[in-house]
Backbone:
């Protein structure tokens, strides 16, 4: 940054892993400035060695690029990018997204107007136009997990009783406080991140977005879903290319989240039991999706 020049208004942090096919569309869709101030983009390649660096250096020389020698996990790679970020606001963004400027402007305006918001996300829509259900979630209970695993949530999406996990009883185009948003798009004020921190590097993959949202709320901030604007989420191929690893990662991270945050006055057995129940539920959901012939299960 040139001396005397104002810092970027926004730092967009993107961690890639086997994302060569998606990163071009993602980067081409990003704004270069917002509200008359620069936007910086930092890309961390997480050890997949797919020659994405040559593509970025040739077509996107304005991107700050770093290549890691191995896969350090989603959280640690994002934290390395965050250490370089200079923006007043920080966006953790997946490479399998396609952006639009109105959504950025809207979300930034909300953060600037309401300092109680720690994380905000628009509605994420899939390539076919359907909503990505992981756009907004609760901090789930065992009941929520059970209803989702056995299909009650899908059968009764308008039921507050059965559809508590993905909150499908709430309007898709509304805006409200939620338990968690999808790690594919998490926009945060830097000042808030200084209070509740960035990603817990103990989570290698999955569960890290849930953990960040939970810590955000425990620090006194709100996690906001705003369905009045939307962003395309292609539901990335990095996890789809390694479905077995994804299944194990989801199982492990779900259990890990509950072991970390469950009531510390409860016994270790109770904490372990709840973590295991959630892990088993998610593993069951993955296996069920595979049996139905899906290419990939819905992650947390």
Residues:
């Amino acid at each position: 940054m040139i001396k005397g020049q104002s810092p970027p208004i926004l730092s967009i942090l993107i961690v890639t892993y086997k994302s060569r096919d998606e990163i071009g569309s993602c980067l081409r869709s990003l704004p270069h400035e917002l509200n008359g101030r620069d936007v910086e983009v930092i890309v961390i390649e997480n050890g997949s060695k797919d020659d994405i660096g040559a593509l970025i250096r040739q077509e996107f020389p304005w991107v700050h690029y770093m290549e890691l020698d191995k896969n350090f996990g989603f959280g640690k790679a994002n934290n390395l990018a965050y250490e370089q970020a200079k923006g007043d606001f920080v966006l953790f963004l997946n490479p399998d997204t396609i952006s639009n400027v109105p959504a950025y402007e809207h979300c930034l305006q909300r953060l600037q107007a309401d300092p109680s918001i720690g994380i905000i996300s628009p509605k994420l829509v899939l390539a076919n136009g359907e909503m990505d259900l992981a756009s907004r979630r609760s901090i789930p209970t065992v009941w929520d997990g059970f209803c989702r695993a056995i299909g009650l949530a899908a059968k009764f999406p308008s039921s507050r009783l059965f559809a508590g996990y993905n909150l499908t009883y709430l309007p898709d185009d509304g805006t409200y406080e939620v338990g968690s948003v999808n790690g594919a798009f998490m926009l945060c004020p830097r000042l808030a991140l200084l209070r509740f921190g960035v990603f817990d590097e103990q989570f290698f993959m999955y569960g890290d977005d849930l953990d960040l949202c939970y810590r955000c709320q425990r620090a006194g901030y709100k996690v906001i879903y705003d369905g009045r604007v939307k962003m395309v989420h292609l539901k990335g191929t990095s996890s789809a290319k390694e479905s077995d690893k994804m299944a194990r990662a989801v199982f492990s991270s779900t259990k890990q989240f509950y072991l970390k945050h469950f009531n510390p006055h409860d016994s270790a057995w109770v904490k372990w039991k709840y973590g295991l129940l959630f892990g088993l539920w998610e593993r069951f959901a993955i296996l069920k999706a595979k049996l139905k012939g899906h290419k990939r299960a819905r992650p947390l």
